[in-house]
Design brief:
Chain lengths: 352, 362
């Protein structure tokens, strides 16, 4: 029982080949665009790699880049096949090449769907990676004299200014970390000594934040220090003050940004996937229709095109048998090379 | 004696026409580029309109936009003409239009050159606009409750962050203005009252700067207040400290930014002008060689092409004479009947008595 049979008169075949050739050019550009989007996403992720702990999320742009490149190659092949299908003498050379080509292309195209699913599935992993990365960045903010960490202050400051965010979850994260280096603390002053003694680890903690948390949209000059003390500042109440600092946390800001990017890229990838699948299905129809023409004298006869010669289950069983036979041959080949006794048996039929 | 004559065979003429057709289409693209550059410049100037005092800065982008549009149209027409010039019959259609077209294009290329030079001359106007504009913006920094000025704090903060600059010429400009609004000053405190009394105008001045002046690259947390007081901060010397705040003034930063844009645009416009001039020269040669072909009558013959038929001096003299005669005709007709003051030299009959001048009808 043939799967999805369709009749193809000569004109329909020709039109299918021509339309498919044009479509393969469109799909080639679409593949190039997918590659470009993969590159863009990778560079954006790489730019903030200093605040990301793990690189799991990079699999999404890597997949996009690989499939984009591969689809350019696939579509060039498809275009060539279409061109040759118009000439019955040139078409037979594709006979052995096309079945594995289809399997390979379908597999690669389905990777696009995998990439899209992964971009949603890896969101918790991204969030976790950012949580750890930002925590480290905030902890090492003061270590501008330690090699390997001296850039953290600049990274975190630029991040907070650009993404309009403060701290990991919110600005209170800065209250739990010593972000002023000991180099700039006067240990002879009473205030410093009190603060350092007020906690177990001997850290200088204060209810203040760095300047990069300041919100330019605030109507009053930025209040960075003594944020919890209403009496220090005139006409200030920290419980109701909303515009003074950025209220969003940097983890939330970055996750929203990357999810936004992937949601924008999503429809384009989906379009590329659908286009590619349409091309592969049409190419399969063209191939099977042309196979009916090979060897015939009159090339303008009507032929049938199908996706699978037998039903799905039967085709799977057949492929399983084929693979088993290949493996057996390989085993027998190994066995015959190790036991020379079997050789004269093989020679006998030749002499007989 | 013609100016720069070149001999043109039939194939050479045809090739010239084809090449000019392609070049005219490229010029249409360059016209579009000019248009886009004009729009880009307009957008960039409008983005920082709050920081620039009112000056004639819009004239340069408007000129570029107009020139770009006119270039598109002129070169589109030129492309059509050159396409038709391959065939001598079709050339006859355009024969009368070509000379006015060339003269118009010549004046148009002059305006492209003027556009390019204006880009370079905008520097002076820009400097003045920025000085006054930035000074006012800083003065109104604190007025976040005054309608019409409430956005200036945000604008100045974002400017200082983006362009990595502080104040007008340097961070000390902030010491001379009150940038903290009275709404946030506790007038009952002694310190505030002292500061207000310390100057004639009663302004709250201090040696502090807004947070947007802070330098991201500094190894220590930003010192915004009591900048000139070394004892207020541990391990701090304001005379040697360079990384704490942005050292550059915003006037210089913005001027550099806009000067870079203007120079790039000016250079592009100059290159486009040279290209237009070469296309114009090619069209002139094509026109003169085709006219000579028509004069000789044989479409396949070799003809001369030149820039001017006679030398510069003679052409200038003949044009001047034409203009003078045009002027004379105007003068004569403005007095009424052209025959009034002219003595008649005709023979009026056997007596040869000249007619008396006819009274003019009023």
């Amino acid at each position: 029982m043939v799967l999805l049979k369709m009749k193809f008169p000569f004109q329909k075949r020709v039109r299918l080949a021509q339309g498919l050739w044009l479509l393969s050019w469109v799909a080639m550009f679409s593949g190039a665009i997918t590659f470009a989007m993969g590159v863009f996403l990778k560079t954006e992720l790489h730019r903030r790699s200093e605040v990301m702990h793990s690189m799991d999320i990079h699999i999404v742009p890597n997949l996009l880049m690989a499939v984009g490149l591969a689809s350019v190659g696939i579509n060039i092949c498809a275009g060539k096949v279409c061109q040759d299908s118009l000439d019955p003498s040139r078409f037979p050379r594709w006979k052995t090449f096309l079945p594995p080509f289809f399997c390979f292309s379908v597999f690669l195209t389905s990777l696009l769907l995998v990439a899209m699913i992964l971009s949603f599935a890896l969101q918790p992993s991204l969030e976790e990676s950012l949580k750890i990365g930002l925590k480290n960045g905030i902890s090492f903010y003061k270590d501008t004299d330690t090699p390997g960490r001296c850039f953290q202050k600049e990274t975190i400051d630029r991040l907070q200014i650009e993404f309009q965010c403060c701290g990991n979850t919110n600005y209170r994260d800065w209250f739990e970390v010593q972000w002023i280096s000991n180099r700039y603390l006067d240990f002879t002053s009473k205030e410093v000594k009190d603060r350092v003694r007020s906690n177990v680890d001997g850290r200088y903690l204060l209810d203040g934040v760095p300047f990069s948390c300041c919100n330019p949209a605030s109507p009053r000059p930025c209040i960075q220090y003594s944020l919890r003390d209403n009496s220090v500042h005139y006409n200030y109440e920290y419980q109701t003050e909303e515009l003074n600092l950025y209220s969003r946390g940097c983890r939330q800001a970055l996750v929203s940004y990357y999810m936004g990017l992937m949601n924008t890229i999503g429809p384009c990838v989906l379009f590329d996937f659908l286009l590619q699948m349409a091309i592969l299905v049409s190419l399969r129809y063209l191939q099977t229709a042309m196979e009916g023409v090979i060897g015939q004298e009159n090339v303008e006869i009507e032929t049938e095109g199908y996706i699978l010669e037998k039903g799905v289950k039967e085709t799977l069983l057949e492929t399983k048998e084929k693979v088993k036979r290949l493996l057996q041959l390989a085993q027998v080949g190994d066995a015959s090379s190790t036991t020379p006794g079997t050789q004269p048996e093989e020679e006998k039929p030749a002499t007989a | 004696m013609a100016v720069l004559p070149i001999k043109f065979t039939k194939t050479k003429r045809d090739r010239l026409a084809q090449v000019l057709w392609v070049l005219n289409w490229i010029s249409v693209v360059t016209g579009i580029i000019l248009f886009i550059l004009g729009i880009f410049l307009k957008v960039e100037i409008n983005k920082r309109q709050d920081l620039m005092a009112e000056r004639q800065l819009q004239s340069v982008p408007n000129m570029l936009i107009a020139v770009g549009l006119i270039a598109c149209m002129i070169n589109f027409l030129g492309g059509k003409i050159c396409y038709d010039c391959v065939d001598t019959n079709k050339f006859l259609r355009w024969k009368l239009v070509m000379l006015p077209y060339i003269i118009c294009t010549f004046f148009f290329t002059l305006s492209v050159l003027v556009g390019a030079l204006m880009c370079y001359s905008m520097h002076g106007q820009l400097e003045e606009a920025l000085t006054v504009g930035l000074r006012d913006a800083m003065r109104y920094y604190k007025d976040t409750d005054t309608p019409g000025r409430c956005f200036l704090k945000r604008t100045v903060d974002l400017l200082q962050i983006q362009f990595q600059c502080c104040g007008n010429k340097g961070y000390r400009d902030w010491f001379q203005i009150q940038w903290v609004s009275n709404r946030y000053l506790d007038m009952s405190q002694r310190e505030v009252v002292d500061r207000l009394r310390s100057n004639v105008e009663g302004k709250y001045l201090m040696d502090g700067v807004p947070f947007s002046c802070c330098n991201v690259n500094s190894p220590r947390p930003c010192i915004q207040y009591q900048i000139t007081n070394n004892s207020a901060h541990f391990n701090y010397d304001y005379q040697t400290e360079e990384l704490n705040l942005w050292m550059r003034g915003c006037h210089q930063a913005l001027l550099d930014y806009y000067t870079n844009i203007m120079h790039s645009i000016g250079l592009t416009v100059l290159i486009i002008w040279l290209f237009e001039l070469s296309v114009l020269t090619g069209v002139r040669y094509l026109q003169t060689s085709l006219e000579n072909v028509l004069r000789q009558g044989d479409p396949e013959c070799e003809s001369d092409g030149w820039l001017l038929e006679n030398s510069f001096v003679e052409t200038a003299r003949s044009n001047f004479n034409i203009i003078k005669h045009l002027g004379k005709f105007n003068q004569i007709s403005s007095n009424g009947d052209p025959n009034i003051d002219k003595p008649s030299t005709a023979h009026y009959g056997p007596d040869n008595v000249p007619l008396k001048p006819l009274p003019t009808a009023s």
